[in-house]
Amino acid sequence: MKFTKKAFRAALKANDQTKVWYLAAIKFGRTPTRKEVHDLIEEVADTIRDDRKAYAMAYDSQRKQRFQAAETMAWYRRGAYGQYGDRHYRQEALEMLRRLLTEDHGNYTKVPMFGHTRLYFCSPSHGHADYNKVRTCKIEGNEVFCDKVIEIGNRFLERKSA
């Protein structure tokens, strides 16, 4: 394949970023820089709409990575998993235990289980492979509390299952 303006314009119209970069590499005979791709798009584009794609085609992947990193950092600043922190861990475990006791036994029932470091509420059939499990308190320092929660949860699950 060789570089032609017609093929390059077709790739721009189709929003095919891979083909745009491939054709630019053929034109330059090496891997082009982002600026070279940007300038080539501006030079070859025959419509204003395609000309506006220059920045996105040349810099978009880097911009998306920065955006995702910023979003993740903002999520951590807002608290992320803060509801499972030291202040609220027991309340979360007790709330999940109340749900187990009051709701009917179904596909979304969560039972208490020990993890390596924390107490989890997971589906009895899927266990820790449950993608929708709830992480609660740390086991270390709360051994008696965690044992009681698991004992009560298992007792009521047996009653509901029978």
Structure annotation, total helices: 7
Distance between the termini: 70 Å
**Based on the structure, what is the oligomeric state of the protein chains?**
single chain
Shape field: elongated
β-sheet strand percentage: 5-15%
Mean pLDDT: 84
Strand order of the largest sheet: 1-2-3
Provide the helix percentage.
55-70%
Tell me the major beta sheet: 3 strands, antiparallel
Backbone structural class: mainly alpha
Topology order in helix (H) and strand (E) letters? HHHHHHEEEH
Enumerate the spans where pLDDT stays under 50 for 5 or more consecutive residues. Answer: none
Number of domains: 2
Kindly state the number of beta strands: 3
Radius of gyration based on Cα positions = 28 Å
Q: Could you characterize what this model shows?
A:
This protein has 162 residues and is mainly α. The protein folds into 2 domains: 73 residues, no CATH class; 79 residues, no CATH class. A 3-stranded antiparallel beta sheet has the order 1-2-3. Strand 1 and strand 2 form a beta hairpin. The relative contact order is 0.09.
